[in-house]
Amino acid sequence: MADDVVATVAQAYGFTGPAVDLGALVADGTAHPEAQIRLPLAMMNRHGLVAGATGTGKTKTLQVMAEQLSAAGVPVFLADIKGDLSGMATAGEPSDRVTARAASVGGDAWSPAGMPVEFYALGGKGTGAVVRAKITSFGPVLLSKVLGLNEVQSSSLGLVFHYADSNGLELDDLKDLRAVITYLTSDEGSADLEALGGLSKATAGVILRELIGFEDQGAEAFFGEPELDTADLLRTTPDGSGVVSVMELPGVQEQPRLFSTFLMWLLADLFHELPEVGDVEKPKLVFFFDEAHLLFDDAAKEFLDSVAQTVRLIRSKGVGVFFVTQTPKDVPRDVLAQLGNRVQHALRAYTPEDAKALKATVSTFPKSAYDLEELLTTLGIGEAVVTVLSESGAPTPVAWTRLRPPRSLMAQLDPAQQASMVASSPVARRYAQPVDDASAYERLRAREQALQPPSQPPAKQAAERRTESAPPAPERGTVAGIFASPVFRSFARSAASAAGREITRSLFGTAPRRRRRRGIF
Ligand SMILES: Nc1ncnc2c1ncn2[C@@H]1O[C@H](COP(=O)(O)OP(=O)(O)OP(=O)(O)O)[C@@H](O)[C@H]1O
Ligand SMILES: [Mg+2]
Q1: 84 CA → ligand 2 middle, Å
Q2: Is 461 domain-assigned?
Q3: How does residue 28 score in pLDDT terms, banded at 50, 70 and 90?
Q4: Which SS3 state, helix, strand or coil, does residue 235 take?
Q5: Which residue would you say has higher pLDDT here, 86 or 488?
Q6: Would you give the DSSP letter of residue 126?
Q7: Contact 267/310 with Cβ under 8 angstroms?
């Protein structure tokens, strides 16, 4: 009986093209190296989900996948939430456990190896090349999500961007955006505010206060120039390995919305920048979206639709997105339906809530001979239930799999070594110094100074930031009103059209950038 199963599974996963070796089939309680469980590279742009309870092996699974992708010349992006992925930059340490696991799963013999890693640090918090975005390319939708704005406020922020876009006011950083809103709510800007239609002074005031609160939490570090060029994430080394971009995220727990929207921005930006390639032999990039539930938690319907759309469209750009989270329940149905490759680690069933999540998880798997409810709660650490898309695009049989051990270090990299790698990185050097070119803030400032009587004491300007926000009046604008306004409609049109005279905003209202292409390395 088991022999049949082993043979069937071995055949179902015996792809002809290059594939990531995940591990070996487990049957009758033992691993069967003759049935290797693999994931075809050509199917990685059909996306995936790596799920499981805490400590069940998700991160090590990412590590195993990332290592083989890199070796196959595919660049990889990973967010290092717990700091335990930095070890990928150096060779793993042999141990009895690793050797025993490697021997039990078979395949290529285990040998330690480090990967070509480039470290990034969101807003420079952590050790890595500083990741920043210009406010204008980040766009109003993602920024609204970060600020926790409601629908009316978020539409209003869209109008502020529209105003800035069409008046040549570059929004590089938060103070640019603040300057534009301040101007619109001032006496001087009232005609422009009026002309905008759907933006009330009260709502603008609320947005301004949110922005100031956000800046007070140190958010300036995340926005401005030089902005991360996503081309940096697509590099290969001179010997043809894919660069593994590891984004360090210490303290992400404090700003979860910021982190998840930034990852979304990266994806939207990759979408803008990459050409259509259709289906490819191997992906251009595989992007692991860790702690994905943070992106979906209390997100508006439109936002979720945009996520689903991005995921759907980016496939033809050759980018594979793998969401990483505890249970498939964390991922909205429209997105989950697009995740063709699944590695499900163990789940717990302690609480009624857990039991519900377990049932929901089981229902998302193709039919199989397994009692998945039972199996998913009894899987060992570093084991998973796997189903992937075969080279012909059909789901493979569900397979209980023991994962291979990673070849790189399964722990945090020595911080001194990491710091010295970053110090000698040309990429990190390029992003090290913030640049503050003349943009909206400087332009509006210059204009204000030109209009001001010379006797104005400079102290007023310093105090201005605190006092300029509009009074906290109740909100009046209605959503319907905003959507009906001619300005909003023209904004929506320009956002939807492929080419406009002003900045054309597309996915999430993010803006593509005109930029110089740099050579690889
Ligand atoms: N494929 C594997 N090879 C060797 N050891 C593994 C493997 N998977 C898991 N382990 C062991 O299990 C431990 C926990 O795995 P891991 O850190 O990947 O869990 P996790 O699901 O990412 O947990 P968390 O949700 O807390 O981040 C590892 O430190 C390692 O010792
Ligand atoms: Mg982990």
Answers
A1: 8
A2: no
A3: confident
A4: coil
A5: 86
A6: S
A7: yes
Q: Is the CB of 56 under 6 A from ligand 1?
A: yes
Which domain covers residue 153, as residue numbers? Answer: 135-171+174-222+438-451+476-509
Domain end among 432, 459, 491: 432
**Within-domain flag for 346:** yes
The order of strands in the sheet holding 244-248 is 30-40, 19-27, 399-403, 383-387, 341-344, 48-51, 319-325, 285-289, 76-80, 244-248, 117-122, 129-131
pTM to 2 decimals?
0.87
Arithmetic mean of pLDDT, 346-363: 92
d(CA 349, ligand 1 centre) in Å: 19
In a domain, 467, yes or no: no
- Which tens digit of pLDDT belongs to each residue from 430-484? 999 998 888 898 888 888 887 776 654 545 444 444 444 444 433 333 444 444 4
- Under the banding of pLDDT at 50, 70 and 90, the label for residue 335 is very high
Ligand 1 atom 4 nearest Cα: 405
Residues 276 and 372 in one domain: yes
**Quick check: 223 pLDDT over 60?**
yes
Nearest-angstrom CA–CA distance, 246 and 67: 12
Secondary structure E strands in 267-360: 285-289, 319-325, 341-344
Domain match, 212 and 246 both: no
Q: Ligand 1: which atom is nearest the Cα of residue 410?
A: 29
The mean pLDDT value for 245-256 works out to 82
Q: Of 432, 461, 485, at which residue does a domain stop?
A: 432
The continuous run of DSSP H or E covering 321 comes out as strand 319-325
Domain presence at residue 481: yes
pLDDT value for 481? 41
CA 156 to centroid of ligand 2, rounded, Å: 38
Within a 10 A sphere around the Cβ of 455, how many other Cβ atoms?
5
Indicate which residue's Cα is closest to atom 15 of ligand 1.
Answer: 57
Ligand closest to Cα of 56 equals 1
Same domain, 321 and 335: yes
- What's the gap in Å between 92 CA and the centre of ligand 1? 14
Q: In this predicted model, what pLDDT tens digit does every residue of 155-189 receive, in sequence order?
A: 999 999 999 999 989 999 999 999 999 999 999 99
Asked if 229 and 102 sit in the same domain, the reply is yes
